[in-house]
Amino acid sequence: MKKSLKFYLLWVFILGSLIGCERNLDQDDDNDSSSEYYEDESDYQWNSLTATKIILLDNKAEISGNGAFFNNNQLLINDEGEYWICGDLSDGQIRVQAPDTDRVKLILDSVSVTCSNNPAIYVETAKKVVIILADGSTNTLTDGSSYSTGNLNAAVYSKSDLVMWGNGTLNVNANYKDGITSKDGFIIKSGTYNVAAVDDGIRGKDYLVIKGGTFTVNSGGDAFKSDNETSGFGYIDIVTGKYTVIAGGDAFQAESDLTIEDGTFNIKTINLAVSEKGLKAGDLLVINGGEYTIETVDDAVHSNQDMEISGGSFNISTGDDGFHADNALTIDYADIIINQSYEGIEAKTLTIKDGNITINSSDDGLNAASGDGSSNDPMHPGSGSSNNNLILEGGTIFVYASGDGIDINGSVTMTGGCLVVHGPTANDNGALDYDGSFVISGGFIVAAGSSGMAQAPGTSSTQYSVLINFTSTYNANTLFCLQDDSGNDIAVFSPQHRFQSIALSSSALEKGKSYKIYIGGTSTGTETGGLYKGETYTPGTLYKTFTISSITTYIGNTGGGGGPGFP
Prior knowledge:
Helix content: under 10%
Number of strands: 53
Structural class: mainly beta
Strand content: over 45%
Oligomer: single chain
């Protein structure tokens, strides 16, 4: 640890890049009341030739320069400036007590600080503090399991705006409560961070902005958090980065907005807190890209208000909902695999414009309902409302549901896309379940399930549909084929659950034409989600021949959910 000061005087490291902000850049440092974060080009520059040099030697320090002194195992920083620090404190603290107009930079270069009864780094006063992780350095900060100062709660604790960056590593062992906390705003531009915390991992009270870096966080509470309830604050913006998270609370929790542009996320929550969600926003959650592997006790991706997904790849296993928004949820595009869920995707108004989506759910696959997302709690069910809507404009959706394939406490509008439902086996649920209207003008549907609550798109549609309720139940993986009178396959489908009903809608259906229903047989085609394409179908048993006579044609018994007109 005792590196030559002469060596460091020869080392010049200057990095300057003006970073564009996702929110409006506010560089007026006197305007602390602004909810928009500010950063300055100078935050990302420092000069080793002019920085004060400090070598920590356990119970003393060698200091070359101004603005710092060492007393009673504390390194005290009193003035604006740059402070290069290396060395060890086995039981001490780095403490910033600069005037509230001053900016302080701490360059950590192989620093190890343990403080048995308070934060290892404590920013008491300053305008802004920038912590720089020197190239190739590994720095370790550790606190004790109890504090002598009651209002402090993190191994790195700042009452001022905090910025971190660099090409080094920061290890934080938070034995009391939080790992890294800023009571104001917190920006992380780069670096490698390994945080183990009894409570929250990384917290920026006013905002948390992460532009890059590699993060491994194991927290008893929330892993990443911004929780200022004042309007305009409490948001998290993530540009990119690599994140490995195990959290006893929420992995990412924003009081207001959570915005993610890109990144790689490996998230797991465990049952230690009231809320154990993966990504959580109090107002708006926006995801524009990234790769997500999420395993959660609670909802994987959640908003108390609205959610907008316009990119990203998701692999999700959850004990509750895969995606949940209390109000509106829009998927412009995403690649989504929900391996396990209670309900797959739920919102008051759910719009899917494009994407590749596979849902496995123990209850409903797609659910449009009013409520707080506590649908797996019989004391807090979602409620029906004419304002609940499912809008399908495109994409390919495969649903494997033990409950309703789609459960819409309102109406459905479908103009495009492909919806394939491997639906319920119990008659108190249906592959398609809606309370209002189902209007289809484009796209393709095949939905297999029980017959007791079976429904098909309604008569206000402009595209033809057929609902078939069979006289007996067929085993899973039994082929179903619908052919026109020329022998052209409209659909060859292998339901993955046993079934007694199939609803089908296709632009290939025409009024006045004759069609044949086959059960069984074989296909040489390529199967995706139970659908065969490019196949040569060898017919099984001819079940029925019928003619399309109306927008919705019914075949078989009405059961509990069919409409009039069954022959």
